[in-house]
Amino acid sequence: MPVAPADTPAGDTDAVIAHYGLRRAFPRQVLAEARAIAARARAEDPENLEGRLDLRKKFIFTCDPVAARDYDDALSLEKDRLGRRVLGVHIADVSHYVAEGGAMDREAYKRSTSVYLATCVLPMLPPELSNDLCSLKPGEDRLAFSVFLTFNRDGEVVKRAFAKSVINSKARFTYEQVMAVIGAKKISHAKTAPGEAFALDRKAVKTIKAISELAQQLRERRFAAGALDLDIPENEVVLNDEGEMSGIVARVCDESHQMIEECMVAANEAVATELRANGVPIVSRFHDSPDPEKIQLLREELRPLGIKCGNIANPKVFSQFLRSIKTHPLYPVLAVMVLRSMKRAVYDARNTGHWGLAKKYYAHFTSPIRRYPDLSLHRLLFAYLEGKRVKGAKPASLCRASARHSLEELARHATEREELAAEAERSLLEIKKYRILEEELVSHMPVVYDAVVVRCERFGCFVDIPVIGVSGLVHVSSLSGRFVRYNEYDHTLSAPGAGSWKIGDVIKVVVSSVDYAQRRLLFVPAP
Question: For the domain 446-525, what is the CATH superfamily, name and number?
Answer without folding.
Answer: Nucleic acid-binding proteins (2.40.50.140)
